Structures are given as structure tokens and as C-alpha cells.
Amino acid sequence: MSRSLGLPPEVVAYLASANRAEHPAQVRCRAETETLGGVARMQISAEQGAFLQFLLRMLNARRVVEVGVFTGYSALTMALTLRAQHGGDARLLACDVSEEWTSKARSYWREAGVEDVIDLKVRPAIETLEARIAAGEAGAYDFAFIDADKTSYAAYYEACLTLLRPGGVMAFDNVLWSGAVADPAKTDADTVALRGVAEKAKADARVDCAITGIGDGVLLCLKR
Ligand SMILES: C[S@@+](CC[C@H](N)C(=O)[O-])C[C@H]1O[C@@H](n2cnc3c(N)ncnc32)[C@H](O)[C@@H]1O
Predict the structure, then answer these.
(1) Atom number, ligand 1, closest to the C-alpha of residue 95
(2) Considering its fold, how many domains does the chain have in total?
(3) What are the pocket residues of ligand 1 if the criterion is a CB atom closer than 6 Å to any ligand atom?
(4) Residue 13's pLDDT is what?
(5) Does 3 reside within a domain?
(6) pLDDT under 70 in the chain at which residues?
(7) Domain CATH code at residue 87
(8) If residue 33 lies in a helix (H) or strand (E), which one and from where to where?
(9) Per the domain annotation, does 124 fall within a domain?
């Protein structure tokens, strides 16, 4: 599990206990993902999940797109809220390239009874997003969570902005990149891409935006 940047373990534990309890499938997803070793850091934190659920409540979101599924925790977390709000009308389009990781995700979604909410597409996310735009789904989504390959964030920004309705929100994870974005000496492709998406949003008259220190940094963009 990723930890909110700079927070000591006891504060992370406090956050987990101060938020409402997770669904048993979320607990199992987190525990089993932890056994995968270092890759477990890719999973969002529990408090970040609670934050995503709160955003979906604020937006009364019914239709969501996720870019970057991994073992399914963030999709599961959002699907639970979508189903609670909209029952059988809730939809989550989930994009990932990994059969290995997303096959684990399906078992948690099944346990929580949200498998029918989630439409998983295993292919490069940009292809799925462009296919949905071509199919006439521009403006049809309430929320987008982007948590995949960082060098594609600018492309995901444009595609997800097209898919969102006015008033819809997109959230980009890892925009602080463990603090690397603040170090001018860091010029690797991921760090440069993450600085780039923050600059893009700041200068973009199509959105209002806020960059936060939740998790590893979450950039929020509201479509005007
Ligand atoms: C940080 S993990 C997602 C974590 C997930 N949101 C969670 O909370 O558990 C990033 C995921 O992006 C996927 N990914 C990487 N490149 C991709 C691409 N081009 N298209 C779609 N998914 C991609 C990886 O397979 C990986 O599962």
C-alpha cells in the first residue's frame, strides 16, 4: 500500500482507524496485495480510497473511468460507492494492460458484489479511451481516476477531459512522485511528465484545479 507522503506509520494507522471501516473485500485485497512485495506500493492508500468515495458522493457520480487498475482496490472502492448511489445504473470503465494483476482484481469485485458495475478492458488505456470517444461517449462521465503510466498522463488528460461532462472531475495520482517533482536535478521521463501535467492544468482555462498532498499527491481538475 502506498503511504501518504511524509506521514509516520502511527499517523497512517490513525487515519485508517479514524475513517469508516473498509468492506471485507477491500481488506482482503489490501492484505493479499501486500504479499506481492514491492509492487504493493502501487496500490492507493485506504485514506485515499475514502477521499475518492467522498468525491464520488459530492458529484453524485454514476459513471466513472479508471486508468490503472492493478489488483483492483481503487476500482472496488469506487464501485462500492457507485452501486450504493445508483444501483444497477452505476458503471465503471476500468483500463489496464495486465491480465496477471487484473485477474486478482476480479475476485475482490465478485466478493463485494460489484463485478457487474465494472467493465474491465485489458489493452492500452489510450486505445480504450479513444474508442469510447469515437463511440459517442464524450461528456458522458462524471469522474476519472488516472493512476497508470506517468508519461501518458498528458494524453489521458485530454481524453478524460473529453469524456467528462461539464462539472465532472478528473484526479491524477502520484503527482508529487515521492517529492521528486520538487527536485530540479530529477529529469527522468516520469518526473518530467508529472511536472508537465501539473503545469498543463494550472494554465488550462478549460478546468479549475487543485494539487493536494494526499497519498503521493493528487491533482484534481474540475471541467468548466
Ligand atoms: C499504480 S498501478 C494502479 C493502482 C490501482 N489504482 C490501485 O489503487 O490498486 C498502475 C497500473 O497501470 C497499469 N498500466 C501501465 N501502463 C498502462 C497502459 N498503457 N494502459 C493501461 N494500464 C497501464 C499497470 O498494469 C498497473 O496495474
Answers:
(1) 21
(2) 1
(3) 42-44, 68-71, 73-74, 95-98, 101, 124-125, 147-149, 152
(4) 86
(5) no
(6) 1-4
(7) 3.40.50.150
(8) helix 24-34
(9) yes
